[in-house]
Amino acid sequence: WFVVLFSLLTLFKFRTSRYLLPALPPLAIMIGGTWRKKFAFLLALFLVTIFTWHAREYYWIKRDSFYSPGMILIQELKPFLKESPLFLYGLDMSTIEEINFYLDPVEPIPIIKTTEGLSKHLRKKEKGLFLMPLEAYEETQSGQDAPMVFIQEFKYKKGKLVLASN
After folding, report:
1. How many CA atoms lie within 13 A of 126 on its CB side?
2. Is residue 108 within 8 Å of residue 100, measured between CB atoms?
3. Sheet arrangement for strand 149-156
4. φ, ψ for residue 155 (rounded to 5)?
5. Predicted confidence pLDDT, tens digits, the chain (166 residues)
6. With contact defined as beta carbons under 8 Å apart, do 112 and 166 qualify?
7. What pTM does this model have?
8. Helices 2-9 & 24-33, crossing angle to 10 degrees?
9. What is the β-pairing status of strands 159-165 and 129-133?
């Protein structure tokens, strides 16, 4: 029970201590059962393994905590977000989740899924900021009646994102 839960939880990219809560009851049962003399060796081996595993995780977290691409992107975006609402266009789901995680908005950021939806937003007189991949920005610029105003380009993971306004 514990081994299955612990193994599955280590596969998640984002780790939070509350994710381990379902694994605590089986861990308590295992530790309580291994206090018997015949399992003392297994208990010691298990505790050394868990300590080693967490030491490695601590090293990774400490090393990577300040180099998260999503955190860096949000820090670069925040000065622009005071002016207008933000819309996301053409981004993959992991990028959208990371932006919502680090920005922590009250409501999720609106996602525009089609070029028709983007055209509709651009024709509105309301100001808005649009975050999209560079390729999507270049495609939309060639076929739009109301072109977007380029604001800033951001490096993100292996590509570039563009912040534009209507």
Report:
1. 10
2. yes
3. 111-112, 86-89, 129-133, 159-165, 149-156
4. -80, 135
5. 888 887 877 777 666 667 778 888 888 887 776 666 666 777 778 888 888 888 887 777 676 666 678 888 888 888 888 867 888 988 888 888 888 888 877 778 888 888 788 777 777 767 888 899 988 888 887 766 567 888 889 988 888 999 988 7
6. no
7. 0.59
8. 140
9. antiparallel
- The 10 Å Cβ neighbour count of residue 144 is 15
- Which 3-state string (H, E, C) describes the chain? CHHHHHHHHCCCCCCCHHHHHHHHHHHHHHHHHCCCHHHHHHHHHHHHHHHHHHHHHHHHHHHHCCCCHHHHHHHHHHHHHCCCCEEEECCCHHHHHHHHHHHCCCCCCCEECCHHHHHHHHHCCCCCEEEEEHHHHHHHHHHCCCCCEEEEEEEECCEEEEEEEC
Q: Report which residue type is found at 112.
A: I
Length of the chain: 166
The span from the CA of 82 to the CA of 133, in Å, is: 21
